[in-house]
């Protein structure tokens, strides 16, 4: 990360700050090569990471890409990537446009499927919970149901103090009189 990302990011910032076109081009070539390196690294990490000195070779390669003496990124870009990208540019652009269109359609479809799944889950949960409440209420006798307090309208409920509050009131009254 330090060699491959932080160092180049800082020097890219410096190139932007100084508005040096030569440095812009150098760092743009580096980032293009590094993006390709990152993709290939993901695959090679899975397949050949067991190879002796694999990680050391990766670090050496990134340093070679960065070095102003070897100009590795510039060499790879000019000799391989630029000709390849130039010859395939139209096909790549068409593929990106198609991917964007498909991506939008796919996101809309996933969104619809997600909403349908969430709605189905909510309805199923509501039906199951309603059934559980119904079964619980059926287990009560009519006498149990008529003794539940709080069914009468709010304005008609008699004011009742809690038993603990009565005890505290009595205790505080006896303490203050004593």
From TrEMBL:
It is a multi-pass membrane protein. The keyword Metal-binding does not apply. Belongs to the DP1 family. Residues 148-178 are annotated as: Disordered. The keyword Electron transport does not apply. One of its GO terms (biological process) is endoplasmic reticulum tubular network organization. This is Receptor expression-enhancing protein. Keywords: Cell cycle, Cell division, Endoplasmic reticulum, Membrane, Microtubule, Mitosis, Receptor, Transmembrane, Transmembrane helix. GO terms for molecular function: microtubule binding. It holds the Pfam family TB2_DP1_HVA22. It comes from Pelecanus crispus. It is found in: Endoplasmic reticulum membrane; Membrane. It comes from the Eukaryota. GO terms for cellular component: cytoplasmic microtubule; endoplasmic reticulum membrane; endoplasmic reticulum tubular network. Microtubule-binding protein required to ensure proper cell division and nuclear envelope reassembly by sequestering the endoplasmic reticulum away from chromosomes during mitosis. Probably acts by clearing the endoplasmic reticulum membrane from metaphase chromosomes.
């Amino acid at each position: 990360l330090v060699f491959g990302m932080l160092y180049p990011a800082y020097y890219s910032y410096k190139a932007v700050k100084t508005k040096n076109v030569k440095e812009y081009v150098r760092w743009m070539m580096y980032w293009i090569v590094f993006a390709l390196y990152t993709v290939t690294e993901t695959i090679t990490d899975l397949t050949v990471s067991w190879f002796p000195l694999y990680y050391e070779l990766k670090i050496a390669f990134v340093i070679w890409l960065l070095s102003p003496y070897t100009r590795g990124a510039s060499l790879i870009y000019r000799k391989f990537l630029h000709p390849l990208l130039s010859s395939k540019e139209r096909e790549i652009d068409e593929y990106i446009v198609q991917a964007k269109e498909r991506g939008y359609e796919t996101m809309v479809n996933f969104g619809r499927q997600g909403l349908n799944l969430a709605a189905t889950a909510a309805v199923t949960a509501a039906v199951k919970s309603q059934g559980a409440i119904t079964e619980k209420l059926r287990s009560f006798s009519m006498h149990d149901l008529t003794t539940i307090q709080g069914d009468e309208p709010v304005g008609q409920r008699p004011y009742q103090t809690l038993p603990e509050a009565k005890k505290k009131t009595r205790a505080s009254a006896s303490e203050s009189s004593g």
